[in-house]
From TrEMBL:
Belongs to the CobD/CbiB family. It holds the Pfam family CobD_Cbib. Pathway: Cofactor biosynthesis; adenosylcobalamin biosynthesis. InterPro entries: Cobalamin_biosynth_CobD/CbiB (IPR004485). Signal peptide: none annotated. It comes from the Bacteria. Converts cobyric acid to cobinamide by the addition of aminopropanol on the F carboxylic group. It is a multi-pass membrane protein. This is Cobalamin biosynthesis protein CobD. It is found in: Cell membrane. The keyword Membrane applies.
Amino acid sequence: MSMVLAMWVAVCVDAWLGEPRGVHPLVLFGRLSALIETHLHADRRIAGVLAWSLAVLPLVCVLWMVQRFLPAWSSWCVSVLVLYLTIGLRSLGEHATPVADALAGDRLDDARRAVGHMVSRDTEALNASQVAAAATESVLENGNDAVFGALFWFVLLGAPGALLYRLANTLDAMWGYRTPRYENFGWAAARIDDVLNFVPARLTAFTYALCGHFDAALRCWRTQAPQWDSPNAGPVMAAGAGALRVSLGGAAPYHGVWEVRPELGEGDLPDAVSIRRALSLVRRGVALWLFVALLLAASMYGGAHA
């Protein structure tokens, strides 16, 4: 029951405060990781494994040891703090809402600039529908990466699990690219993130189905996700697009080149409303997780005291 209460409190604190003002701890972790990369980078997989281990494992182990020796109430407070720092539900809205507002006001240049903070594609080449698609896809994918994944690992392994997941996800965003520099060095970061996200991504996809158009979500998940390069982003975005009954995916510009991507979802082209509906879908999913966790904890507590 204390773990479920920690989840509720952490989500409420995130909704109240949002991301920490000033320098976010994940930004400091990024700087540490960049320093490690500077000293250990080599075009070998073992170098990437060593760099990943040095960046992530000491921090997770320190957190585990600190909580082990703290009084129960202090350890619980640390759990709330760590989970709050590893989720970004309010941040999703703070990044996506300006895009929706700009599109609704026919301010395409403003929308392009705003979505540029969410995605890595060349936003200046996007039309209004493509900007809406980029923002909607980002909300759906980050619903898993920045919210549900951390909640899953928190339930499974407590605060160390949530920290492990978020740091691994951050390193995947830094090193998990198929470029000459990271093809081998970033292999470990990409593969570890794939493993840690395998179950959460599918739970997220099913959550989107439960909170949206169920049949369409499952149909798109089944038929479209296997065509996507990422084994985890595919189910999440295909199910999310189906749940929203909106058409996503398709060609997108990266570094001056339009890359062909599979189609996702079904229905109308995305617009400002699609972005807001995607945010609402993620929020309903989080509410569902919290209430299910509360019901399961209450059931277990009642059974133990029967």
